[in-house]
TrEMBL record:
Domain YCII-related: start-end pairs: 12-81
Organism: Micromonospora phaseoli
Pfam families, alphabetized: YCII (PF03795)
Name listed for the protein in its UniProt record: YCII-related domain-containing protein
Domain of life per record: Bacteria
Family according to the record: Belongs to the YciI family.
Length: 86
């Protein structure tokens, strides 16, 4: 599994793109790729937990959603995660 950490600002571009992005995440959640996702309580960032085999797949996941390159959205880091409770 992987943790994608985002930094967010309140740009109009990000807010306009958010609905489509959330729809994409919901579809990937239905198929089991996105395990959890959501903004931090202060809306300064967000976390997305994805269940993908390797970093190449995570990069493909990010490349497939234009939200990740929208003004106001920065991918801060992508880290592999090894949870023992799911």
């Amino acid at each position: 599994m992987w943790i994608v950490e985002l930094s967010l600002t309140g740009t109009p571009e990000r807010l306009a793109a958010r609905g489509d992005h959330r729809g994409r995440l919901a579809a990937r959640h239905e198929e089991g790729t996105v395990r959890m996702a959501g903004p931090l309580a202060d809306d300064s960032g967000a976390l997305i937990i994805v269940d993908l085999p390797d970093r190449r797949d995570v990069d493909g996941f990010l490349d497939a959603d234009p939200y990740f390159t929208t003004e106001g959205v920065t991918v801060v880091q992508v880290r592999e995660w090894a949870p023992f409770l799911v």
